[in-house]
Amino acid sequence: MRHLVPFLDLRDLNAQQLPGEFLAAAAVVFLAVPQGVAYALIAGLPPAMGLYAATFPTIIGSFFRSSRQVVAGPTNALSLLVGGAIIGTVLEPDAAAVAVTLAFLVGVMQVLAGALRLGSVVDYISSPVVLGYITGAGVLIGVGQLHNVTGTEGPRGNLFVTIAGWIETLASGVDALTVGVAAATVVLVLVLRRIDRRIPSAVIAMVASILAATALGLEDRGLQTIGDIAPIPAGLPPLSLPDPTLFQKLLPVAVACTVLSLVESSAVGRSIAGRTGQKLDASTEFFGQGVANLAAAFFSGYPTSGSLTRSALNEQVGAKTRLSGSISGVFMLVVLLILGPTMNHTPIAALAGLLLIVAWDLVRPARIQKVVRTRFADRVAFVVTVLGTWSLTLDKAIYLGVGISLVLFLRRARLLVIREMAFSPENRMRDVALGRVPEGFRRCKQVRILHVEGALFFGSAGELRAAIEEAASAPGVREIIVRLKRTQGLDVTTIETLEAIHQAMEERGQHLSLVGLRPGAMETMRRSGAVERLQCYPSQPLWFAAMDAALTDTLSRLDRHEVDCPLEAYVADRTALKRKTQK
Fold this sequence. Notes:
The chain has helices spanning 18-42, 47-52, 56-64, 76-89, 95-115, 127-144, 146-150, 159-170, 176-195, 201-215, 226-229, 247-276, 282-298, 308-317, 323-343, 348-362, 365-373, 376-391, 394-412, 461-472, 492-507, 519-528, 545-557, 566-582, and strands spanning 71-73, 305-307, 416-423, 429-432, 447-455, 479-488, 511-517, 535-538. By secondary structure, it is α/β, with parallel strands linked by helices. It is built from 24 helices and 8 strands. Strands 4-3-5-6-7-8 form a 6-stranded mixed β-sheet, sandwiched between helices. The chain has a two-stranded antiparallel ribbon with strand order 1-2.
């Protein structure tokens, strides 16, 4: 169970590392404050919940996850998914109840995934699908802020509904002050980035908007602020409890949030580990992220993930241990205690400008171009996922992406490795590419010997059938020998497939032999009764003993008039070698 308590490595922390950990934590908080408020707006939640999600979830998640630098908290794409769930769920319950219940369900599923060591699951979600979702979400985030940029109202829904509703509201007039604040925020961030990307441009833009709104009396002139929507109270995150009556309704969305959170966290952790050299445990990442989401459920947060921007900043500033992430969560608690009321003066238009920058950052033309220029299947996966995020609810878009990934995996996965065995110029048996005998190698016209490796289960039965039938269809072939020494997981579907092949070959006057079956496979054969119908040669302690027995029996059934068949000479050599060894 040590993989579930990775914080034990803090025992190796030394005093010289502490200044770097505190500095990294401070930098993360400077970024987490504007992001937390902005991401909560994406989710349709009170801004305070975005800050709450960066307190105890960040503290606890940092202690329990595998990566030392990944910072848990609210993220843009996940916030958009949560927002979709809130739109589709909130009737009688309020948005906060939906958010904390969703965090609880996500946390439970992620903790179970970590405890059951299911870390490799995310490997089956393809990069084009993830990129497609992130790109689609980026466009949705930008379009979703158009109303806040122009100071108008409009419907919230899929991309096309939102754009159509926004265009209709433009006819009633645009608030010039709101547009000016949003545009000034975007320009300020871009200028600061141009000077040096290490400058905390989001924090500076947020502070500047508060100062400008206060100094110029913009609130009195009608500029909308956070305080007008949902004021941020001064104090620690209040305790919260999930609502069991919402479990069934939220479960489909919770599964989608779980998948997205795990994919995001895994991608962030691997990206940083590639630079630091740390060896990650994906299952521990799952568990740590799940514990963070459970903390969000009980401290008024909403579903969290591993933040790419805050984690990258944490590592760049110099964090070496998981302590920096936990300290950043403590710093956020201090911010809430001291600066909560001050942040209420943040203009909504300024946050909309920041979110336009976030949306732009999510759309990565270089990566999109790379996907579009490669395989056709990758292009299809990317485009279909993007269109899904724009036209479907976001949880269904996640399921669509996962489905596409599984289809692509099943199309390309080689569940079995099947090669042919031929005789070298020295008359030794070697495996070669199926159907491609190299120059100098020989095989008998009447015999095909196949070497199979991999899992023999229902998913690979068709592949095995195709290989045997192709070999058996060659002119003059009477004997097929299948070596199964390096296979595992023999199931009833595979046995039935082999029985059907055997029967079809018998009707054509051909013979099938199965060689090298391990004890477990032989026991499965016996229980199914197939051992009485199929010619089986169990694995033996001596190297190639089972194959020698099969070849000897095969030779006895062949027509001896074939010219230059190496099988007879090979069997004679092996027999002579055994006699010499016995002496």
